[in-house]
Amino acid sequence: MKDLIERNRCPWCLGSEVYREYHDREWGVPVRDDRLLFEFLILEGAQAGLSWSTVLQRRESYRAAFDNFDAEKIARYNARQKKRLLANPGIIRNRLKVDATVANAQAFLAVQSQFGSFSAYLWQFVDNQPLVNHRKSLKEVPALTPESKAMSRDLKKRGFRFVGPTICYAFMQAVGMVNDHLVDCFRHPANLATSGQRAARSKGTKTAASFSKKAK
Fold first, then answer.
1. Which one of 105, 120, 162, 196 is CB 3.0 to 4.6 Å from 71, fit for a cystine?
2. Catalytic: which of 19, 27, 39, 52?
3. Alpha-carbon distance 104 to 171, whole Å?
């Protein structure tokens, strides 16, 4: 079996250990947990105008600074707490983004109250099933889609900030609402299924051989 480092991956994650780890373990994996969905929404908004690696490298600092993305706590942040955040070198110190995080926490809680969960609300934009694409190159991956536009419009109506259609599409890719792993990437669903079948056949062969030896 090939070592993880030797496997084919989406080109965007190559050359960075942080990117590769994120690509291999999180990107495109369906997320239904409200806290994690909220975390990704905030981090994608923080990325605006910056690279995703800049945000990933600060992820643990964000978790520490924002109470592990506990929306109920963040929604109550006052001016003093916001000032403390703007002095924190571990996060992106942008006043608009800090204010947006608090506003988004408040909007998040309102959505939870109305829909039962943030997950139920978000996944309706893809009919509750991941959209699995079969793209051959990064050039085929769009910056936004009709689904991300619809999500953006509705989020904005509900008071969310830093949720433009491009940010929403990146968010949808991150939390597995859309699977944009390229077809030759080992993380594409078709390749994962093939690997699983091979592993099952291999296990079956070993089990059969073991029984055969015992029978003798």
1. 105
2. 52
3. 15
| DSSP calls for 43-81 | HHHHHTTS-HHHHHTTHHHHHHHTGGG-HHHHTT--HHH
Range of the domain at 118: 12-185
If asked whether residues 55 and 76 sit together in one domain, one would say: yes
Write down the catalytic residue from 12, 21, 22, 26: 22
Integer CA distances (angstroms), 70 to 34, 35, 64, 105, 207, in order: 10, 7, 11, 8, 47
| Nearest CA among 15, 30, 8, 58 for reference residue 179 | 30
In a domain, 4, yes or no: no
Q: Kindly report, residue by residue over 176-199, the tens digit of the pLDDT.
A: 999 999 999 999 999 988 654 444
User: Average of pLDDT values for 142-170?
Assistant: 98
Query: Is position 5 within any domain?
Result: no
Which of 27, 39, 44, 169 is labelled catalytic?
Answer: 44
Active site residue 26: no
Residue 52 annotated in active site:
yes
Q: Residue 170: its pLDDT value, please?
A: 97
